[in-house]
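Table 4 source record.
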Amino acid sequence: MLSRAVLVALSLVLPSLVGAQSSVDLAGNRPATPGVTRTTLKDDAKYSVTRVVFAPGAGEVPHTHPYDIMIVPVKSGPAVIMIGDRKTTSVKAGEVQFVPRDVVHSVTNTGTVEFEVITVGIK
């Protein structure tokens, strides 16, 4: 049986090799993503609040969570937010994107300056 680390590594590499969209369940330990910095602001039995900063060109692998998520951009900018099959490219500060539990989603900074969001997970 493959270890969790090997499975996570494969899930990060295989989509780019075969061109298919898959996802990583990030309920557990999240692998480091180059250019993406996460700071946990609150994590208790009810909520998980995280500040996520994306360097220019950086993005997450498509992933899921076992609870509902709200994504709130802190800065406006050219970014792509994918939620299921819905793509948002015009991102304004303060807008709220809702991600239902277990729905594949990702954020990618397509601009030339840092892009920042606050994510609120409702457990």
